[in-house]
Amino acid sequence: MSEKGGGLVPDQLLFYCRPGFEHDLGAELTDLGHRLGWQAKAEFAPQSGFVRFMVNESRPANELHRQLTFDRLVFARQSLVALPALHLSRDDRLSPILSQVVASGWSFDAIWHEAPDTNDGKALAGLIKALTRPLESGLRKRGALRRKAAGRRLHLFWMDGNSVQLGMSFPGNRSELPGGIRRLRFPHAAPSRSTLKLEEAWHEFIPRGEWETRLAQGMQAADLGAAPGGWTWQLVGRGMHVYAIDNGPMKGDLMATGMVEHLQEDGFVWEPPHRLDWLVCDIVDKPSRVTAMIQRWLVKRWCREAIFNLKLPMKRRWEEVERCLALLDEALQGAGVRATLRCRHLYHDREEVTVHVRLLD
Phi and psi dihedrals of 134, rounded to 5? Predict the structure, then answer.
């Protein structure tokens, strides 16, 4: 951490992730950082739920943060410009925090207390609640917490009761969810818990104001690998007619709706009778094989939008994701198909990532 103009200049970024995916996020950040011309190093501990990205040059970390746009990251749940972690005394946890904020010169209009998505992190809720009001009062007195500060937000990331790291987030380049986690309630009428993966994907990739036009009643969709019907259930709930493609049985009352045509066929070879509005796919297979199938659909323009999952290998997950996305993007460009492509490791994903593609023609 350096000083400039009497204040601390951040030399690191802080990212949250699913515990167990620190190495994958670190590999992603290192790869992207090098492409952008930065000398930076990822530091993390296994199962910790976060990664520090240390900048090893004179440029401020804020510049790198702006270039590593959050909506293009795959494994990150949150993205912050960060100050060095503080190790606190149980007798006085507030004074070091207040001093560091003042030294940084930061100002903000909101404060979020967060912790890793682990059992130890959840146990910190009582401590965080006790410190919230005294901290807010102290920061207001020092002029750091203001009524209007351009939407900047101070994040206090509590690793344990005596360790905290302060970070700053900026509108348009962060998650607007506490901890970067979208918590959804499981609908008990759904055939499987996998239904939440598609619902979360819609929230992630489609602005809520566009649901009435892009997820509209009367649209037609295909669900490849549909059984037992968790994703089909979401589509039917939006009033869509669904071709459910799977050799396995469909559960629940889906067939009684009259909105589902269940075809016991191989999703890798089935072709739609005409262009559809949506393709969704949660088939368990090699990511390269699933990507090749989706590529065929998009190049032939058999659908307007697609959401699909890529099941990840145990090792070199980022490399596999990057390879599949690059191949798909290259194929679309080679075929003259204009499209937007995004990928995210969602909260309801496990050993997989979710990809969204929207054709622009």
Answer: -60, -40
